[in-house]
Amino acid sequence: MNSTTSKPILILGGTGKTGRRLAERLTAHGLPVRIGSRSGTPRFDWELPATWGPAMQGVSAVYISYYPDIAVPGAAETVGAFARLAVANGVTRLVLLSGRGETEAQRAEEMLKASGADWTILRCAWFSQNFSEGFLVESLLEGEVALPVGNVGEPFVDADDIADAAFVALTEQGHVGHLYELTGPRLLSFADAVAEIAKAAGRDIRYIKVSHDEFTAAMAAHELPPEIAWLLNELFTEVLDGRNETLTDGVQRVLGRAPKDFSAYANETAATGIWSN
Ligand SMILES: NC(=O)c1ccc[n+]([C@@H]2O[C@H](COP(=O)([O-])OP(=O)(O)OC[C@H]3O[C@@H](n4cnc5c(N)ncnc54)[C@H](OP(=O)(O)O)[C@@H]3O)[C@@H](O)[C@H]2O)c1
Fold it and tell me: Signal peptide: which range, if any (predicted)?
């Protein structure tokens, strides 16, 4: 543990998929945390830069999870501005949650590096938890998942592994200046992932590949905000083209163990009942 741990660690997105898990880990080890989100105290809002300075006063480090997505145009400038402000305020230890194969995410990484921070980057594959804590839950409950992606393999990574990696990066020495690419241990298509969930949940759930226009129309019918619809289409068009069909050893390098397999995630999550109606 480093000597600055009596000060809280600011966790941006601290109520979200990875931030919540990181907060749980730090708290369980008796380490103070400050949640950086619109519901935090003080409030932190990416869209209101005046809230950034007060949220970072007196913290030892920041876990940066950008919202809505680090692939959104302009995310790099915003993350860069945040990192420069943190360094100017003497908060130099910054850990960024990033994405793979995304132009804007890789630009954000460069902005972070250029800020003068003591940086660590966790460049992550798609989270398994998108199926249980994200936009796919409703379709799984309805028994049909329709996405504009075919037989492309994605190495879904578990949010618990990401939180474990963030915890280690923030509490142990030797991770400054390192970029860890975090993936799960296996490539699965979205059809494979849905089939694993269906099996674990003991239900019939279909996967259908649809066109981008059909997907956009379906999202509008579900009243998803247009910017989220744009983002999802972008991710499915740009990023799921095969460029990320590789496994990495990032989890092994940071944690000294294998990443969690999707089937373990599916079985554990099915047992919570979230996919049962
Ligand atoms: N999901 C994936 O598969 C994946 C893969 C690789 C990288 N990433 C990256 O991970 C990051 C987080 O994505 P996620 O899907 O896991 O989301 P998430 O963390 O589950 O997002 C929700 C969090 O964001 C906060 N939030 C919402 N609006 C905010 C605002 N205007 N200002 C400040 N905080 C706000 C929420 O708290 P409040 O509601 O209290 O504000 C909550 O803590 C993104 O940058 C994404 O690009 C995601």
Answer: none
Q: How many helices (H) and strands (E) does the chain have?
A: 11, 8
Q: How far is CA 262 from CA 57, 101, 190, in A?
A: 39, 21, 12
Q: Is the CB of 17 under 6 A from ligand 1?
A: yes
Among 37, 44, 149, 232, say which to mutate for ligand 1: greatest number of ligand atoms within 8 Å of CB: 37
Residue ID of nearest Cα to ligand 1 atom 18: 16
Walk me through the domains of the chain, giving residue ranges and CATH numbers.
9-272 (3.40.50.720)
Phi-psi domain of 34 (left: phi exceeds 0; alpha: psi -120 through 50; beta: other): beta
- Identify any residues that bridge with 146 across adjacent strands, giving them in sequence order: 208
Cα 232 to ligand 1 centre (Å): 14
pTM for the whole structure? 0.97
